[in-house]
Specification:
The structure is a single chain. The chain is an alpha+beta fold and 156 residues long. The chain has one domain. The chain is 32% helix and 22% strand. The chain is built from 6 helices and 6 strands; from the N terminus they run H-E-H-E-H-E-E-H-H-E-E-H. Strands 1-4-3-2-5-6 form a 6-stranded mixed β-sheet, with helices on one face. Helix 2 runs parallel beside helix 4.
């Protein structure tokens, strides 16, 4: 009998969502600093703007930064990208705790209101912008094999 250790680990991975200060950068920074050590080695940083899905699913905030570590996931809603401001600077601070070489310009150069999912993969301590892939997707999909921001009301 073979066991898929990747899926086994994924299914047991804790998801810790920011419950207080939704949408407030300082609250997200505090949340991240409080839980940073629980992550273990960071694998991915996922940025997703969920405006359309937010209307359909009230459990979602309109944007998420999801940090996937080897031990758990942290979901934050008070960080942003794609413009100059407090939210993108907060994301820059978070990402600098993972990769000191990340630049603020890399954060503000990303498109803001886009359907694209941005994925930074940790490659030898550097966060590199890559295409959203199946490996990262597998950590985020629930038992129904849908991403958290996908419309759950679609009948098949």
């Amino acid at each position: 009998m073979s066991i898929d250790l990747h899926n086994e680990a994924k299914n047991k991975m804790r998801i810790i969502k920011q419950e207080e200060g939704d949408g407030v950068t300082r609250a997200s920074l505090k949340f991240f600093k409080d839980h940073f050590k629980e992550l273990g080695k960071v694998k991915y940083v996922i940025l997703y703007y969920a405006e359309d899905e937010w209307v359909l699913n009230p459990d979602l905030m309109h944007q998420y930064v999801i940090i996937i570590g080897e031990n758990c996931q942290l979901w934050m809603s008070g960080l942003a990208w794609g413009y100059y401001g407090e939210g993108p600077y907060g994301l820059f601070e978070v990402m600098q705790m993972i990769d000191l070489k990340i630049s603020y310009e890399e954060i503000v150069s990303l498109g803001w209101e886009t359907d694209d999912v941005y994925m930074f993969e940790n490659v030898n301590g550097r966060l590199l912008l890559k295409s959203f892939n199946e490996s990262a997707r597998s950590f985020l999909c629930g038992v129904d094999n849908r991403l958290p921001w996908e419309n759950r009301f679609i009948s098949s």
